[in-house]
TrEMBL record:
Cleavable signal peptide: none
InterPro entries: CPA3_antiporter_subunitC, NUOK/Mnh_C1-like
Family: Belongs to the CPA3 antiporters (TC 2.A.63) subunit C family.
UniProt keyword annotations, A-Z: Cell membrane, Membrane, Transmembrane, Transmembrane helix, Ubiquinone
Organism: Tepidicaulis marinus
Name of protein: NADH-ubiquinone oxidoreductase chain 4L
């Protein structure tokens, strides 16, 4: 009895499970990788998972577009989450473009996009300035 409930619960909410997996993969990429481009990819993956979460929450099964037809029993989906996500996608693209532009500048200055190498170069510069 419990197994039927748990498996049906998991199957019915598969989109939320996929969102959780995508969020964790994106967070893992951001935390574990030293390459700045890979960090941007991880942030984009995490951001996409958040978009999917909000769209999933905003969808009502059997709901239609909120166009008033005079039927009081009509079920409507809320369009606000979809509109907000559309705006967030535009902001996400702009943020990604800015991040990549900064990475290009960092690469021009330090010759690398690896975090640990940049930190080593900065420490060497600080040592030379203090000496």
């Amino acid at each position: 009895m419990f197994d039927d409930f748990s498996s049906s619960f998991i199957i019915q909410h598969y989109n939320y499970w996929m969102v959780i997996v995508l969020m964790m993969v994106g967070l893992y990429i951001v935390v574990s990788r030293g390459n700045l481009v890979k960090k941007i990819v991880g942030l984009n993956l995490f951001q996409t998972a958040v978009f999917m979460l909000y769209i999933s929450v905003g969808k009502i099964i059997g709901g239609t577009a909120p166009i008033l037809t005079g039927n009081p029993d009509e079920v409507y989906s809320n369009p606000l989450p979809h509109v907000l996500i559309l705006t967030a996608i535009v902001v996400g693209v702009a943020t990604t473009a800015l991040g990549l532009a900064l990475i290009v500048r960092i690469n021009e200055r330090y010759g690398t996009i690896e975090e640990d190498e940049i930190a080593d170069i900065e420490q060497e510069i600080d040592r030379q300035e203090s000496a």
